[in-house]
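Schema walk-through. Below, the input block comes first and the output block second. Nothing else is stored per chain. Lengths vary across the set, and this one has 458 residues.
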Amino acid sequence: METLRRSIRKVRARRRMFSPEPVSEYQEGLSKFQVSCRRRESVRVKRISGGRAGLEREIKKKMSLEESVCLGSAKLISASKSESQILEASKTLLLGCSRLDTLRTELGLLTRGEWRNLQRSRLAEVSLSDLRIPLVWKQRDQLSELGDNKKFAVFCIIRSGTQVYDTSLISPIDRSVTDLSFSDIFGFSNLPSDFVIKIEVYSHCISPGLLGTPKNWIRKIKSKITTNQKTHSSRVASFELLAETSLTVDDAKDAIECHDLDKTAATATTSAKDHQMPQLFGQICFRLAVSPYCKQEPLMTGSLSVSWPESEIIVPGCFARLMNWKLEIWSSTAQFRRGEQPWKVVSIDSMSLVREMGDKFCVENEKEEHADFICDTTEEITDWVEEILNNIEDYSKWNKAAIDQMEVLSPNMKNELGVRRLRQKTKSKLMMLYNRISSNDLQGMNLQRNEIISRGSE
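--- output ---
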């Protein structure tokens, strides 16, 4: 009878161990708070202005804030009563220290004068999403119920310059978990074409005394007593670096891709505790989308006159716009404001050739009609040529991001993406209807009105 009772207890214990734990209200609220913080941080980076002095002032302000966050995290760790609170506070402390180191490095570059101040038109916005890391478990752990029952907590730190973010904490992770999936979306602003986004994977072996079995806890106490060790330890959860990888503009694509993880970056402490860390498969899946600002914002606009070689025909008063690696020409400013299509489009790519000829310039492509553009002053010609040359240089630097149209996601919850896309689609239809009315129907109505006014005056 006693043997039967023990068997029933073992079955109940196994069911409790392998049953999925529901997401608590605290964890759900914390996840929403972290997402809102990422969104505010992305907006804050976009609005930084004031040149070098403004950036230095913003960095010092951010350093003071991160120091307060680290201090508050340390106090929260000492006052925490649950394992989840200790893990979250320790993660926040590690993130704050990483941000402080990055901000100090950036402030040193500003002090030494090594800071680059690029125009917004030569920068881009980047989004990283759909992070997924497969795990590797031993065969005996997967098939046998008596396998290793250690549990872990894992999260990632994603950084590029002074923009440092963290993923949500996945805990507990045991042998029943085959891969780590992060639903977070990270948005980076004002990144140059040579940007580097580093992804660092951190892990912590959860104490068996809190989330393990009573037998393991008793065995651990006996071992410490026999070796004359202290039974108390630091409350801070020490997260160890498992692996890392670096992403560039060459890894950008409007689809989920795989990338190798570098496990050699792990510290010596992590190597010594390799048996206490989850085994990674060696790859990471992600979606990296890049959209240069010049694809959506005009680099330069102005009035030009168009002429053709070996011809006396000149079209004066044209409106020109340089955007999305195209020089678009409208016959008038009113035509542009009505939303009509440009009557001439000149492509800009790495094979384009720009010539400056006195009071005019031209952009030559192999399979396009040659045309000259005339400006009123020499300064305007210099400005147009300089912007076009920079645009040609950026075309080769941005690589696939200049050719492909990638959707850059904002750091919002995933259930909000459908609403955002629906709003964009509705807006585009309204704009098309407005353009059609303003260019055709409204023009006819104006003609009828003018005709009625002229008849009444007679």
